[in-house]
Amino acid sequence: MSGGLLEHFSHIVAVLLMVAGLHVVMARGNLIKKLVGLSIFQTSVYLLYIAPGKLIGGTAPILAPEYALYSNPLPHVLILTAIVVGVATLALGLALAVRIREAYGTIEEDEITAADNAVQDAEGAKP
Amino acid sequence: MSLAAHLPALQVVLPLLSAPLAVLLRHGGLAFAIVTAGAWSAFAAAIALWLQVGETGAISYHIGNWPPPWGIEYRVDRLASFILLLVAGTAAVVLPYSRASIAREIPRELHYLYYAMFGLCLAGLLGIVVTGDAFNIFVFLEISSLSTYVMIALGRDRRALAASYRYLIMGTIGATFFVIGIGFLYLMTGTLNLVDLAERMRSVESSRPVLAALAFITVGVSLKLALFPLHQWLPNAYTYAPSAVTAFLAATATKVSVYVLIRFWYSVFGETLIFHRLPLPQILLLLSLAAMFAASFTAIFQDNLKRLFAYSSVGQIGYITLGMSFDSVSGLTAAVVHLFNHGITKAAIFLLIGGLVVGLAKPDAHRDAPAGSRDAVPPAPTFDRLAGLAQRMPLTCFGIVVAGLSLIGVPGTAGFVGKWYLILAAMEKGQFWIVGAILLSSLLAVAYVWRFVEVAYFRSPPAGCARCEPPPGLLIPAWLLVGATVWFGLDTSVTLGTALDVARQLVKVGA
User: Fold this and answer.
1) Which of B169, B177, B217 to mutate to test the interface with A (most CBs of A within 10 A)?
2) What averages of pLDDT result for each successive group of 10 residues across chain A (127 residues)?
3) Is the ipTM of this complex over 0.90?
4) Domain that includes residue B464, residue range
5) Which residues 175-194 in chain B show a CB within 8 A of chain A?
6) Which of A91, B464, B482, B489 is the most buried (most CB within 10 A)?
7) What is the CATH number of domain A2-125?
8) B222 and B296 both lie in a single domain
9) b or e along A67-91 (b: 16 or more beta carbons within 10 Å of the residue's beta carbon)?
10) Are residues B44 and B187 located together in one domain of the fold?
């Protein structure tokens, strides 16, 4: 049993991070905390890609007679792209949070929804 | 010749290049010129590709001359070339409209950034369609999504910010689900090339990681295409985004996601797995029906015209996915043709609503400008402001009515073609209750379009209102699309012909 756990260690960590991240995104009302959750969620995917590409004792793919065991470099390259995407998303999300704070004076989701509903009611009630 | 051979790459590269150039120029007019040039050349490339694919079949383009499956392959087949036409065509019409439209909605010093984002979004959407590499789809998806979030946040109303944030969260979850699915597929097959993936899939298709990949990809893409219970981001995003952005997104963003789903279901996972071993068609059928009824029903009770048509979009996407769920030639034909026709119809409507908002904002046009209170915000197109509008903006209102007829699916408009094929597909399967459901949900569309007609045509306008038709810069592009809505309803050889070809190529197992 413990051997099975260790064998899949990286997958278990990835799934834990994934679920924790998603939970934070959904359960928290604070816009910054949501972004933290989103980042954790995205990070779990990096692990999901990178871990299977690594062979213990494997090197970078160098064409030379003394190296026989290579790790697959492609997942690293893919995840480098995904990291860039993740950083851009986080930056944009934070920028939006700043603008929302300027416009609403709060970054709590329920307060923003309440403010929006108030405006909507006022619009609807106007003759 | 040499240039023609590079069309699949130019298709993406030209709009992609226009975006940073627009930022470097830092001038609204120049940025407009260069991004419009990029979009028009992309449209020209799309037409050329569509003709070429019609003659020679699918085109495979090897980026950097690396042969697939090692290099990234751009692959344009009938379906891809058809979607390219829709996306590039809409951009080519919406950009000239933007010039007059955003002048009233976005501060002048931000104009060049708007055009840059538009260029990026266009490049991303076109990239999703042409690429034949699974991870590449994710990258282009994020390029288009990130620029979309920015464009939505450019809306004047502060609710645009909240809508953009919500879309960012939902969209990123969707894209991350998608990339998790791609990761599983890569683990199982060792390839990212879609054609290669489809071949290697056969030996592992029942394994658990592949099924998990299917689930992740389907849910992730469904979030992006606003399939019924996952559509929560859409109404606010469409309502508060600048008019030109709403029109462009409504016609392209969700449609391109539908394309990705069709690509993965039919070309990669294969019909046997999707339609015969798993209960996916039943689930999709139920969700589509829920969208057709619940979203259209919600639309009827909206006060804001933009939000009304945003909910209508969710309902219309239901028709498209309903067509996919049949696994038959006529079903997929209906999906593809409705995807195209609904795209241009909705773009026309949102462009006209943008014009309507501009008309309403004219100083002599609206009666109760509350002194000093956020006068920078253009008036929302709520029904109480629209009374008797047809007398003040006859062209705009008539355009909305014509496009509205297409939403209902009246014969002679584009919307009819897709619904006709949906009904054919349902009858082929012997499921006559679905025919009833399609007709009934069309009645809901009658109800929400009628609400506009009633207010605009049969209520008397407030006293002292002059005619306030929006400027021709807004009307002409919008009417071009209204014209296309009627044209593609009468002459279906291009749309229906292509859709039938596509369906015959993709549907191999179903009838």
Assistant:
1) B169
2) 69 92 94 95 92 80 83 88 94 95 91 86 60
3) yes
4) 279-365+377-511
5) 176, 179-180, 183, 186-187
6) B482
7) 1.10.287.3510
8) no
9) eeeebbebbeebbeebeebbeebbe
10) yes
